[in-house]
Amino acid sequence: MITPTHYMVLSAALFIIGVIGVMVRRNIIIIFMSIELILNAVNINLVAFSYKLQNGVGQVFAIFVIAVAAAEAAVGLGIILAFYRNKETVNIDEMNVMRW
Amino acid sequence: MLHAIAFYVLSAFILGFAVLVISTRNTVHSVLYLVLNFLAVAALYVLLTAQFLAAIQVLVYAGGIVVLYLFVVMLVNLKRPPEDHSSPQRRSWIGFALAGLVLAELGAIVTFGSVVAPTGPDMEMSDLALHNVEQIGMLLYTDYLIPFEVASMLLLVAMVGAIVLAKREL
Amino acid sequence: MIDTYLIPLLKILFVLNATLVGVTYMVLLERKVIAWVQVRLGPMRVGPYGILQPIADAVKLILKEDITPARADKWVFTAAPIIVMVPALITFAVIPFGPVVHLFGREVPLYITDINVGLLYIVSVASIGVYGIILGGWASNSKFPLLASLRASAQLISYEVAVTMTLVSLIMTAGTLSMVGIVNAQYTSRLWFIFVQPVAFVLFFIGGLAETNRAPFDMAEAEQELTGGFHTEYSGMRFALFFLAEYANMIVVSSVATTLFLGGWLAPFPNVAALSFLGYVPSWIWFLLKTFVFLYVFLWVRATLPRYRYDQLMRLGWKVLIPTAIANVVVTGIVKVLLL
Question: Which value does ipTM take for this structure?
Answer without folding.
Answer: 0.90
